[in-house]
Amino acid sequence: MTHNTGSAGGIQNGGVFLTHWQQTEVTSSTTPFPVPGLLSQVVTAPTRLANAAGSLALNAATAGHQALEWSFTESVGMPTNEEVEVALSVHYTVGTIAHTVAFTVYLESQATAIGGSLVFSVYWDTGATAGTTFGSESEISQGCSGVGTCP
Asked: In sequence order, what are the residues at sequence separation of 6 or more whose Cβ sits closer than 8 angstroms to the Cβ of residue 145?
């Protein structure tokens, strides 16, 4: 399991349990074009990671919207076909009104071992081009005992 908290400016505490899947950065960003595909929120149908670095989204997104971007590094040695549960939350304000949004998503490592480290960007789209101020974020990742069987 890893647990990271930090500000949208990229400050975060290093995780220690999942050695091959680590959050390496979090930053205020914009949703890229093309818009990334959605991560699965269904434990029995995790999103399979590609054999190349890429981007994924937590929610329906529009290119150019304000977004919070997490970067995860998958390193050589990640077990194949391993499901990981990732719980993310964002505390933010629009004007003077505070909000919180939370997601739990499921991903699965590749069927064949990767040859080098890969970076995956995960975006939460705010739904607007401006006006959102990020307060804090948290992320908890944990390995599952088998595909479709997570804590």
From this structure: none
The values of phi and psi at residue 25, to 5°, are -165, 155
pLDDT of residue 145: 87
Does pLDDT of 94 surpass 60? yes
> Can you tell me the distance from the alpha carbon of 146 to that of 7, in angstroms, rounded to the nearest whole number?
32
Q: Are 58 and 126 in contact (CB under 8 A)?
A: no
Structure tokens at 12: 């975060």
Q: Are 27 and 66 in contact (CB under 8 A)?
A: no
Please name which of 90, 71, 86, 72 lies closest in space to residue 137, comparing C-alpha atoms. Answer: 90
The DSSP secondary structure of 57-81, one letter per residue, reads ESS---TTSEEEEEEEEE-TTPPTT
Angle at CA 120, nearest 5°, toward 76 and 118? 25
Question: What is the distance between the alpha carbons of residues 145 and 121, in angstroms, rounded to a whole number?
Answer: 25
pLDDT of 126: 96
